[in-house]
Amino acid sequence: MDSRSGPAIIKPKGVVESISLSSRAIHHSSPSSSSKESHTSAGSPSKSLCSSASTSSENMNPYETKALREAVKTPLSAVDECPLLDGESIKGKEPDVSYICPYTGPVRGILTVTNYKIYFKSVDKEPALILDVPLGVVSQVEKIGGATSRGVNSYGIEIFCKPFFAFEFKEKYGQGEDWKIYDPIKELRRMGVPNESWRISRANENYQLCDSYPALLAVPKVATDQDLYKVAEFRSRQRLPVFMIHIQHYLYVKAFLSNVLSWIHPESQATITRSSQPLVGMTSKTSKDDERYVQLIMETNAQSHKLYIMDARPSVNAARGGGFESDAYQIAELIFLDIHNIHVMRESLRKLKDVCFPTIDDAHWLSNIESTHWLNHIKIILAGAVRIADKVESNKTSVLVHCSDGWDRTAQVNSVISGR
Fold first, then answer.
1. Which residues hold substrate (predicted)?
2. Is 41 annotated among the ligand-binding residues?
């Protein structure tokens, strides 16, 4: 495969990169084969995913072209071996590989694969050509040609990378003390906490109460720190019901703490709290401390004498012995939201990605989207969020949301409810 049959780096419309590699170790070409010809088996992915080098170069803007030509060059003497980061180790090395460059054609070199990256260095060019691709940005790998392919560089792989961002990124703002931008005390006060019903607890200041909760927790005013420890023992991963901080400013802080969102109504004081499931076990254990604590949350809202517990999981979890609140919680009503677990969501998202990339089948677009069930999952999450918002806004009733551990389905619903 030469430079005309498949470019080394393709960026159609700035969306994706691809790297074409071939190895004489994979297939030894006949000495009589012409280096100017490409023989690829029928149905090869290269026919649909590769274009000519001249075409790909024309589709690039001048900045992209210049950067692709110059950013990866380094003197031959600068790097003798594949540079490794701390903890990085070499998993494999192929000494005779050709990189199909869109500008100069095939480039011979050494391909090294580590537990972090794919690293290619040319051996016959000065300055040396370096390709350094972290495994985390690899989206797809496809084979070019087949075992019966003949000709120079007619058998190899094409590596597709995830959407390309930039060669260099310049932050909009200068370097500062980012950790001081967000102040949890100020954020709680912005929402009216502490008040006559809620206080700020430092029981988790060293994360000894719950290692996945923030250091400061808003809890019912009459609940002591000793009560919190007792309740945490009855909840999965010690994630007891708490009113946690809703962050609506500073996007990078929000990204870091986006799994701890909840809300308090500015007028009725109805709250949305979150937790993990109770550890009832197969013997249907109960906890008077947990029952009393849930009642204290209900009592912080003087406009209602009821609390809704929204279990984000499907109701079938109750039949299978999943932890949920029993009739012992007399002031609470349990409702299941029927949201699937994170593994089902991830698989659905993977199917959606496969439908959209690398090619789209227009003839079967709607049926392919339906088969992923992605829109159905989104509908269920939105429906659950609407139910909770209605209880808080219309009924002025506080709501406790949880799933198994309280950090996937719970976060999905709470972020929709409390987001702006």
1. 341-342, 403-409
2. no
